[in-house]
Design brief:
The chain has ten helices and six strands; from the N terminus they run E-H-E-H-E-H-E-H-E-E-H-H-H-H-H-H. With about 280 residues, it is α/β, with parallel strands linked by helices. It has a six-stranded mixed beta sheet, sandwiched between helices. It is elongated, with a radius of gyration of 26 Å.
Amino acid sequence: MKKQEVLIATLGVSPQIVTICLDLLAQQTVQVEEVVSIYTANRQVKTALAQLDAELQRMGGPVHRPVLIGNDKKVVQDFLTADDATLLLQILYREVKCQKDMQRRVHLLIAGGRRVMSAYALVVAQLLFDEHDHCWHLFSDFWQNDRSCKMHIEPGDYAVLVPVPVLRWSPMVMRDAELAFGDDPWQVIAHQQELQQRERDVHLQAFLKSLPRAQREVARLMAEGLDNNAIAARRHTSPNTVTKQVSAIYAEWRVFFGLPENAPVRDRIVSELAGYFARHPDG
């Protein structure tokens, strides 16, 4: 059975972005059933929303459902605080998750509104998208000089939908997190980050085990922030010996993690192993 298609758009002061996107999707034989506009209570944005709603009604569809960024305590007029951005993330997450729960294919248009809206929309796409969903940006400027009237593509106009790559997180892990944490995107993100750190620690542990004992001890001292001379003094050995051991650690790191032969790695090794030993003092 073919999935229904929904367009979720971050809306700014240019309603044409949405109607042009619909025109271009129609050229791809995509039939959008519903448009969800994510908007702020800014006066100009509300004017654009009314224009979009009127145009979609004139077209005879698709169904238009505006979603205001806010809750029972606050309505966002512009993004001025971290709380405003948090509300935006929650709204975007809730709306995309709702569509995914209904087994719809989501087209996420991030060309409108403030930049923070595009950035947080991409975060939500990473959390919830599967291979059937699409994130779009719009390149078009023909309507700029006639914002109030020109809502659609005409012959000779330049407009193109550009697919935005979405690096999705593990779908199985994300589904478990969605079930556990419901509509709280911050908890879902924290859960995913915790799992990613655990996976990284497994790789770091395997790397350390791949080193000879003397090199493991040098690596631990590197993680403490010691330079080669300080490591040599601590281990009662020559700086030349430590230099050779450190070079061997660099080489093994590059091979283990698939890096180019001459890639600079010391800062990364120190940073990652410092965190690893802080979490696992016994190594």
